[in-house]
Write a structure and sequence with these properties.
The protein is about 45% helix and about 25% strand. It has helices spanning about 5-25, 70-80, 110-120, 140-145, 150-160, 165-170, 180-190, 200-215, 225-230, 265-285, 300-310, and strands at about 30, 45-50, 55-60, 85-90, 100, 105-110, 125-130, 130-135, 175, 195, 235, 245-250, 250-260, 290-295, 315-320.
């Protein structure tokens, strides 16, 4: 192993430890997913749930770039688990207290993550599509307009923001560019504008997911398996993490594919199952979830015997693909 590789692994390990320390300080429940074993091939490192803020799916990286496979895995897992896809990087080009939207996921350094969770007075902005955004506090905006006896039309005139947009801010808040935020502050006071937080991001991603959902859900290569999984709900295939599929229905099914010609070896199936049980142990306190391993008639006994050596079978359902 080269000195460069050892240094990179050390930096990753230290960054992951800092992220874990932040999650523990906030009281988040989390698990670290260690599949695939090669770090470069993973798309998801942590699942963190519970507490006051939204649940998050985290990828920890040295660089701030996000590959297509990483982004798609994180987005699909976020859709299935109702969570936010977050990349934490120590890239020096990431500014403190700026969240960057890249390929649909949210990229930040660990100081920004810490401030979002632990320092509510810090002003944090979202950078997307070439603009910086803050958030409008709906309640504070309505209070300020009432104190000033200001109508929507008057505020629209003072700020050069359309009446339709002002009405939206009054009704539901939302994100506002820094330029418009400055105009609102000048017209009605600085307390109507606040930091971007995980609740705002959750709303942002929900709006985008309605558009992205159909693009992310594609037909599976195994029609029989697809028919079986669709009996349970919406199917999201995951390429570079422990689950092969996450199915969102009446309950969440985290699925490992052991059916030939699956790309998984028996060793992979066991490792994936172990990691999926860890995932479900964390999330099922928030949502109903379980682990299923889909096997064929020919290898079902072998798969069951091998998994039972590492996992309590009470936590796993071994399903036969008819």
């Amino acid at each position: 192993m080269s000195a460069e590789t050892r240094n990179r692994r050390k930096k990753l390990r230290m960054l992951l430890e800092r992220v874990v320390n932040i999650l523990e300080t906030t009281g988040k429940r989390y698990t670290i997913l260690r599949f695939p074993s090669s770090y470069r091939e993973r798309s998801i490192d942590l699942i963190a749930v519970g507490g006051d803020a939204a649940d998050v799916i985290i990828r920890v990286k040295i660089g701030a770039g996000v590959s297509k496979d990483e982004a798609h895995d994180m987005l699909k897992a976020s859709l299935a688990l109702d969570s936010i896809p977050v990349v934490i990087s120590d890239d020096p080009e990431l500014y403190d207290n700026i969240i960057y939207e890249k390929s649909g996921v949210y990229v930040m350094n660990e100081r920004t993550l810490e401030n979002m969770y632990l320092k509510p007075t810090e002003l944090i902005a979202l950078y997307k599509k070439g603009e910086l955004y803050l958030s409008v506090n709906r309640e504070k905006l309505n209070e300020a307009m009432q104190r000033r006896l200001m109508s929507i039309s008057e505020l629209s005139y003072l700020t050069n923001i359309s009446r339709r947009t002002v009405f939206k801010y009054k009704k539901e808040g939302g994100m506002v560019t820094v330029e418009k935020a400055e105009k609102l502050v000048s017209a009605v006071g600085e307390d109507v504008v606040e930091s971007i937080n995980f609740d705002i991001i959750a709303k942002d991603i929900q709006e985008r997911m309605r558009e992205l959902g159909s693009c992310l859900r594609k037909a599976l290569s195994n029609p029989r398996l697809e028919r079986r999984l669709r009996e349970w709900g919406e199917v999201y295939d995951i390429r570079k993490s422990a689950p092969d599929y996450i199915v969102s229905g009446e309950e969440i099914q985290v699925v490992v594919d052991a059916t030939p010609p699956s790309r998984n070896t028996l060793k992979d199936v066991v490792k994936k199952t172990v990691e999926c049980v860890k995932l479900v142990d964390v999330v099922q306190r928030e949502i109903k979830a379980s682990v299923s391993v889909i096997a064929s008639q020919e290898n079902m006994s072998l798969v069951k015997d091998e998994i039972s050596s590492y996992v309590n079978l009470n936590k796993v359902s071994i399903e036969k693909l008819e």
